[in-house]
Specification:
With 412 residues, the protein is of the alpha+beta class. It folds into two domains: 173 residues, no CATH class; 183 residues, Nucleotidyltransferase, domain 5 (2-Layer Sandwich), CATH 3.30.420. Helices cover 43% and strands 22% of the residues. The protein is built from ten helices and 19 strands. Strands 1, 2, 3, 4, 5, 6, 7 and 8 form an eight-stranded antiparallel beta sheet that branches. Helix 6 crosses helix 8. The protein is flat, with a radius of gyration of 27 Å. Bound molecules: zinc ion (ZN). The site of zinc ion has 8 residues, from loops.
Length: 412
């Protein structure tokens, strides 16, 4: 889990810090000048830029090596952001570093959380700074000023709108989430597939149409360009492929975010997917793109879920698409394309939705077996939860109803 905590600083040598920030901004700008050209593209690779500007920055500033590297990284990032905008048809002008902000890492900033102070690398050597913590927010800071956190990258910013220009530390903190073994977890199953990119046991469908559409268009264009076989065609393919990749990643990011929000809304403790290894096996070779997308989606969900204290697990998916999620009857003929109709109890629903429920149920079964019958837990459904013994608890006043009750219209 990652956090950024904003802390006001009381500094003994303000001049030194001000001068350092000034030179840092200059170094960022020098990087941009080097990386920026009118047609802009592909000039933002950090290591390439570093090679070209590092010496010059060292010679013309008093910044120490680690700060120079951080400035180059920031400059390169800014060029990259603009280049991506331009590539996607948006307008962007050359980045200009005007705000008073400087990036620090472990080597240039030493933080003593328990002593509520830090030392900061400047052009005038190390300077001391004490934390100025508002008393009324004591509890808030207490949680973070604790040795269990690891310090990551931070920034220091000068706020001019305050009297006497205050300095603020935006402290980056990180710690491993402790894995809690839930006694009575609520589980959400997720089915990944071709018709729907993802479907949850709570009845949320993620189509992923746009992703497919974009990919198809890209492949057609690539085919045409490949036939040309010229060098410029090759370069165009490369650029298009980067853009396509970025688009796909963005889309999957958004879907993963919604998926985790869906879990949060349903008080889910564990999100369950089928084991991705099996997906790879059952997918035809020409669908490798989907396998890639599933893996990416899974990574994003895992990352975002962890931040919120939700676990993500995988189960062996065998029979999850043939089994009836209502009565358990398992037969190949239950499924017909997108439709699922149980040969035994007649239960009818979308085939992927049925599979999503089974994936959640399977995890509950596995837990029950491994903890010798003590493992309880329930499956999160559209409007309630289901226990393995068939006990169904409807959500008394679901979030959706709640909003409607208060006259708020919101599409979920
Ligand atoms: Zn059935």
């Amino acid at each position: 889990m990652k956090r950024t905590v904003k802390i006001k600083l009381s500094i003994n040598d303000r001049k030194a810090l001000e001068e350092t920030i000034k030179q840092f901004k200059k170094a960022c700008q020098m990087t941009v000048e080097e990386g920026w050209n009118e047609n802009g593209l592909n000039n933002y690779k950090k290591y390439k830029l570093q090679k070209r500007v590092y010496d010059e920055i060292r010679e013309t500033t008093d910044l120490q090596a680690n700060l120079v590297v951080r400035a180059i990284a920031r400059g390169a990032q800014a060029v990259k952001g603009c280049t991506q905008l331009l590539e996607n048809g948006f307008k962007a002008s050359k980045p200009n570093f005007t705000s008073d902000s400087i990036a620090y890492d472990k080597r240039t900033l030493s933080v003593y959380l328990d002593e509520k102070r830090c030392t900061i690398s400047t052009v005038n050597g190390r300077i001391d700074a004490n934390f100025v913590l508002p008393e009324e927010r004591n509890d808030y800071y207490k949680e973070y000023l604790d040795d269990s956190w690891e310090i990551t990258q931070s920034t220091i910013e000068k706020h001019e709108y305050e009297k006497e220009n205050s300095f603020y530390l935006h402290l980056g903190l990180e710690k491993e989430n402790e894995e809690i073994e839930h006694e009575d977890p609520t589980v959400m199953g997720v089915d990944l597939g071709m018709n729907n990119l993802a479907v949850t046991s709570t009845g949320k469908f993620f189509k992923g149409n746009q992703l497919d559409h974009n990919r198809k268009r890209f492949e057609e264009m690539r085919g045409k360009l490949q036939q040309k076989g010229t060098r410029s065609a090759h370069l165009t393919i490369q650029r298009m492929s980067e853009r396509e990749n970025r688009y796909a990643c963005d889309t999957l990011h958004c879907i993963s975010k919604e998926l985790v929000e869906e879990a949060e809304r349903n008080d889910v403790d564990i999100i369950t997917f089928e084991n991705l290894k099996y997906i790879r096996e059952r997918m035809p070779k020409n669908k490798w793109y989907h396998v890639w997308a599933f893996n990416k989606l899974y990574q994003y969900v895992e990352y975002k879920a962890k931040e919120r204290g939700i676990q993500v697990k995988q189960i062996d998916p065998r029979n999850t698409s043939r089994r009836c999620s209502k009565c358990g009857h398992t037969e190949k003929n239950n499924r017909n394309g997108n439709k699922f109709k149980c040969k035994q109890c007649g239960y009818e629903l979308d085939a992927d939705y049925n599979a999503a429920k089974n994936i959640g149920i399977k995890l509950l079964h596995r837990r029950q077996k491994s903890s010798a019958g003590a493992g309880n837990g329930q499956l999160a459904l559209k409007s309630g939860t289901l226990k393995l013994n068939g006990e169904y608890s409807p959500t008394f006043l679901s979030a959706r109803l709640c909003l409607r009750y208060f006259g708020i219209q919101k599409e979920f």
